[in-house]
Design brief:
The chain has 430 residues and is mainly alpha-helical. It has helices at residues 3-33, 35-42, 46-55, 60-70, 76-89, 100-114, 117-126, 135-162, 165-186, 209-213, 216-246, 254-258, 260-281, 286-307, 314-326, 331-342, 345-359, 361-376, 380-405, 408-420.
Length: 430
């Protein structure tokens, strides 16, 4: 295949996976957007609604790991097709009369289908682009999520206000089916088996998973993503309710305001991905261009959320939550690139999936803890303030750990040297 055809094929896949992630994050966000109508109709408490938000992540990490290992041997084309179909089918039960248990079960099933989405999408993308050219495609795929929320929230909120929250889920089911048909027609597997940066030390064909999981750079990147994901999952479940119950805004007014974090996130991730790739192209180390930069973005978001409760106006509170959720999104581009930089290609899909499983456990905890805090607080606003402070502290700590530990060049050299000196003896590689 010529370079021109390969380039066209690669960017076609990036465009399709951008849409894939757009639907993925719209599916995640719709339950939070409909939080107040759902709680009113079903007469459930904040803690119960938090359980619905957390339930989405119950099987999320397990399916991420299982499918992540599977795509080391199974074509990503079929894995992605199956996921898209599951997403669509789990939305349609919401069109009827449902109770707390039915919504919870559908969200658990949806989470199982969406758990592997991002790592598998990136694994598919990396089959088309070498290491030094991955940051921008990664940023575009990642920002399918940001754009998905940005575009979908005003539309879905309009559906909720003018029809019902039930139909907001139905619209997403239809979108999922349409994407599945499109991917079946156009989705293809990339042929790039090895993606080394010129002159870089590369690890062996396989390394022991124990060694990879204990690696400081990989652990540091996952800590940073854990912090960012705590904030993301909290916002997906509770940001709309925060504006309605905490700040006193009406449901009809929050569509565009709910889209502010993803809008700023689009700029942050695309701009951050471009800057990271530019630094690498000009000779900066990956530790600086990816590790220090990505960790600092997460830490900065944590600081914004820590100071948010002290802001004297509604506008400033919304601004701080927007920055606190959006700026750390840069790590969703940086972390996979860091892991992919030092992980053997044969194990990359599994490591990306394991990282997703570990970091997204934040989503299992964050919504339920926020609901519990709100239920036990003197006022809804006091509960939201406490929950966002806790989130900010977790993000700050995760970002600082990431900055301290991420050093891809050092680890790639150690892996290569260990393989050359028989350093893998006594451990199992797969």
């Amino acid at each position: 295949m010529s370079k021109a055809r390969t380039a066209i094929g690669g960017w076609t896949i990036v465009a399709l996976l951008f849409l894939f992630m757009l639907i993925n994050f719209a599916d995640k966000a719709v339950v939070g957007l409909a939080a107040v109508p759902i709680m009113h109709e079903l007469k459930i408490t904040p803690k119960q609604f938090g359980l619905i938000g957390s339930g989405f992540f119950l099987l999320f990490p397990i399916s991420a790991v299982v499918v992540g290992f599977a795509v080391n041997r199974v074509r990503t084309r079929w894995a992605l097709l199956s996921m898209g179909l599951v997403w669509a089918l789990t939305q349609f039960p919401m069109l009827g009369s449902v109770g707390f248990a039915a919504i919870l079960l559908c969200r658990v099933a949806l989470g199982a289908g969406e758990g592997p989405a991002y790592p598998v999408a990136l694994h598919a993308t990396y089959k088309w682009f070498p290491n030094e050219a991955r940051t921008l495609p990664t940023a575009i795929v990642a920002q399918g999520g940001g754009v998905g929320i940005l575009v979908a929230l005003p539309v879905l909120n309009w559906v909720i206000v003018h029809y019902s929250w039930h139909w907001a889920f139905g619209v997403l089911g239809i979108a999922g089916l349409l994407w599945t048909v499109l991917w079946l027609a156009l989705g293809r597997e990339g042929a790039l088996a090895e993606a080394a940066t010129a002159g870089a030390a590369m690890p062996a064909d396989r390394l022991p998973y124990g060694r990879l999981l204990r690696n400081p750079t990989i652990v540091g990147s996952w800590c940073a993503v854990f912090g960012a994901y705590w904030g993301l999952s909290l916002a997906l479940t509770w940001q709309a309710a925060f504006m309605i119950k905490g700040l006193g805004l009406a449901q009809g007014k929050i569509g565009l305001l709910s889209a502010l974090p993803p809008a700023v996130g689009v700029v942050a991730v695309i701009g951050g991905g471009w800057l990271s790739q530019l630094l690498l192209s000009r000779g900066a180390t990956s530790r600086l261009a990816r590790g220090l930069f990505g960790g600092a973005c997460v830490a900065a978001g944590g600081i914004a959320l820590l100071v948010m409760p002290a802001m004297p106006s509604v506008a400033l509170k919304i601004a701080m939550t927007t920055l606190g959720i959006a700026v750390p999104s840069v790590i969703y581009v940086v972390s996979p690139a860091v892991v992919g930089e030092i992980t053997p290609v044969a194990q990359r899909g599994a490591l990306l999936a394991i990282g997703t499983a570990i970091s997204t456990t934040a989503g299992l905890l964050s919504p339920f803890i926020m609901g519990s805090v709100i239920e036990g607080a003197a006022t809804p606003l006091a509960g939201f303030d406490t929950g966002y402070r806790l989130c900010g502290a977790i993000m700050l700590l995760g970002g600082l750990i990431g900055m301290a530990l991420m050093n891809p060049e050092r680890e790639a050299e150690r892996f290569a040297a260990g393989a050359g000196n028989g350093g893998l003896s006594g451990e199992v590689a797969d």
